[in-house]
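Take a look at the protein record below and tell me what you see:
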Amino acid sequence: MGILEKISEIEKEIARTQKNKATEYHLGLLKAKLAKYRAQLLEPSKSSSSKGEGFDVMKSGDARVALIGFPSVGGAGPPLQRPAFSQSTFLSLMTSTASEAASYEFTTLTCIPGVIEYKGANIQLLDLPGIIEGAAQGKGRGRQVIAVARTADVVIMMLDATKGEVQRSLLEKELGSVGIRLNKHKPNIYFKPKKGGGISFNSTVTLTQCSEKLVQLILHEYKIFNAEVLFREDCSPDEFIDVLMGNRVYMPCLYVYNKIDQISMEEVDRLARKPDSVVISCGMKLNLDYLLEMLWEYLALTCIYTKKRGQRPDFTDAIILRKGASVEHVCHRIHRSLASQFKYALVWGTSTKYSPQRVGLTHTMEHEDVIQIVKK
């Protein structure tokens, strides 16, 4: 029996098994096996690792956003079709990149990068259509598509507002099966394999979803018999398996509902109020400005302006950094040797008590601060 057949059998058994106290250990073991087989499936095979098969796109700009959508089933045409409204139109509207709105076979797909210029930042937007078409099974270029998606800072999930929640749940399931966790934080579980001493299990909170026995069974499934485990929050068996695998990616996701011009105002209002959701219409160019604002917020970027002594600040060329960046990060961005020559900095803006304030390397910068660096 191949890996795909084993995965299918386990998924069927999980669906058949009624969830109760008596079956929690059985379900935990099934989930552990499922995660193990999926990891094997997505490991690149040595035979197919020849040069020239790469799908990766060079990371450029200040941040990377992966645009993921669901392929539409178009009438009597082939099942693998891209809707003419979705990623292609969106990419053309948001960037200067032209993406053809045509049908693409997943195996012949090339990733289409574009750049969104917003608030002085260059945000790389990657059109990754067709991730649903067998990526989790490693079909075609599934592994490469997933590898690119995992390098993104934010995922934009393009959804058809007329299709309800079906597309969203299917895409979340597909991404979840390849280790991409959307709008979730990393479970607060300490795990460290040891050379001996058996399994040491502790928790600082009352556990309602996981027990010591279940943790031991899951560890034994992975041939781990000596380890230290500490639960700092009430986590599920799935979350413990995620920590065990160690290759999960946690990233923010914006659910973008397109085609709002084709549904009722009540439905638009309902979708707009859902967490992490934005409603737009590519056809009528509605609400795209708000989408950019939300994207900026989810990327957590900060604009920093520089100033030379005796001159006015340069507002034409901002330094784009992550929220929480320090003066040292600014120095490294300007020149790698600047931090070693640093004496102090003068900062104007919301991060200071008064302007200008003399600060050191550890001072945390805020959005639209102005900095003047004084060298030794």
